[in-house]
């Protein structure tokens, strides 16, 4: 299930000790709905804000990642995510970039 991150999906039921059945969206309707439990992560919920950015080298390519804070979560739950893995990323990235421009203009 690792195309970076897919979902979130609702877990319908536990199948044995090692798999879950999920309710897939229309986009993924051709996939089998049962996944190994080791591939499933708890969704931290909606994004509160993007805190900062960094560049890393991944598979020989430069990639920008963003440190994301989730609503009703503490800083220890912050995650570094690629741009395409941020829920409602366009909105939060616009806000983050605007706040950085404002900070830079005040220096």
TrEMBL record:
Gene3D superfamilies: 2.40.50.40. InterPro entries: Chromo-like_dom_sf. This is Chromo domain-containing protein.
């Amino acid at each position: 299930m690792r195309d970076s991150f897919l979902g979130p999906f609702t877990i319908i039921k536990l199948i044995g000790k090692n798999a879950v059945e999920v309710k897939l969206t229309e986009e993924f309707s051709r996939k089998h709905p049962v996944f190994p439990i080791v591939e499933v992560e708890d969704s931290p919920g909606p994004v509160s804000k993007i805190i900062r950015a960094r560049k890393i080298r991944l598979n020989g390519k430069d990639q920008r990642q963003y440190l994301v804070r989730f609503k009703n979560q503490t800083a220890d739950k912050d995650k570094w995510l690629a741009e395409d893995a941020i829920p409602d990323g366009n909105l939060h990235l616009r806000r983050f970039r605007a706040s950085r421009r404002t900070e830079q203009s005040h220096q």
